[in-house]
Design brief:
This protein is an all-alpha fold and about 100 residues long. It is about 75% helix and about 0% strand. The longest helix is centred in the last third of the chain and has 47 residues, at about 55-100.
Amino acid sequence: MAATLVAVACLASAIYPRSRAHPAQRLTPIAYFGDVVALDSPSQLRELLGESDTQLADVWIDQVWQTSAIVSRKYQLVRWSVRMLGAALSLAVVIVIEATVGSH
């Protein structure tokens, strides 16, 4: 039961969308999609990028960094979920066999 609960928690955490960038991981003022959608228009984004010392390449590098960190964490959670589901299934088979042998 515990393995199943851990597996479900890992899957839920992997599936749940990440919507905030951690301040310590920000390489540019536009660190994730939430920063962009908080602006009023594409022209405001253009102005923000134009006023700062930030180059568009810096924003792309930041986005690749952020996305890679998110994907890595999600894959790790999926791996743990599969392991826990395997453990839960193995334990369920053992319990069924034990119950069948014990009833005879």
